[in-house]
Amino acid sequence: MLDSAKKNNIKFCVNLSIVIIALISFFVLEFFVVHFDSLKIDDIFYTIFHDDIESNFMTGFYKYFTHIGSFYGLIVIALILLIALKNKKLGVATIVNLIIVGIFNFVVKMIVRRPRPDGINIITESGYSFPSGHAMMSIAFFGLLIYFSYKFIKNKGLKIFLIILLSAITFLLGASRIYLGVHYFTDVLAGFLIGYVVLSFNIFLFNQLNCTKIKNSNKNIG
Predict the structure, then answer these.
(1) C-alpha angle with apex 64: 61 to 65, nearest 5 degrees?
(2) 97 vs 17, 71, 131, 143, 198, CA distance in Å?
(3) How confident is the model at residue 204 (pLDDT cuts 50, 70, 90)?
(4) Residues 156, 157, 159, CA angle at the centre, nearest 5°?
């Protein structure tokens, strides 16, 4: 049997490996986006969303649903959580996480400066396209809620339900941006990848700050 320290080291190495793979994959996507006018994979997903599944119902659903993943929509959810949660540290961490991701997304957009798709635009959005802010913020925001659900909710059934629900919301928000014609598939994929990297850093920072506080409180007690 592995002791607790070895298990934690293995988990850390696995998580770090996933983060590195996500970061490398993001930079590979960025390279192709910057150096090529169009990508075949974007054309494939464009066809799937607009020729195969487009309908009045899907359009209405995604037009409504996409507002949830906007920065302001997520801020409202975060403020509700801050008020509702007994553990205020979780609410504050959720808001700080969202602000960090929002700033990071803005910086990357200004560096890459990829224009938005000019084909079918069911809704109109301003600003640059790469990476998708909705995808980046949703995976960071709802990913943190998934982590908190896994770590702090004791009821196994409720925990599984929330993880599935929040995961579905995250990927539906990404899909909504492609369907509505305001992002390429590679924008959304890049948003998920770099959003996951930022999320992992914020979770690591949250745990480090909590460990430091626990150690300091133990010293005071002693």
Answers:
(1) 80
(2) 22, 12, 17, 10, 8
(3) confident
(4) 65
Greatest Cα-to-Cα distance within the chain, rounded to the nearest angstrom: 68
The domains of the chain are located at 4-217
Q: What is the pTM of this model?
A: 0.85
Element (DSSP H or E) covering residue 72: helix 71-84
Question: Encoding tokens for residue 127?
Answer: 């600003």
Helix axes 156-179, 133-152, angle to 10 degrees: 180
pLDDT of residue 160: 93
Q: Is-contact 178 185, C-beta < 8 A?
A: yes
Which one of 5-14, 99-108, 203-212 scores highest in mean pLDDT? 99-108
Which pLDDT score is estimated for 3?
Answer: 67
What is 20-56 written as a DSSP string? HHHHHHHHHHHHHHHH-S--HHHHHHHHIIIIIS--H
Structure-token match 């002791």, residue found? 3
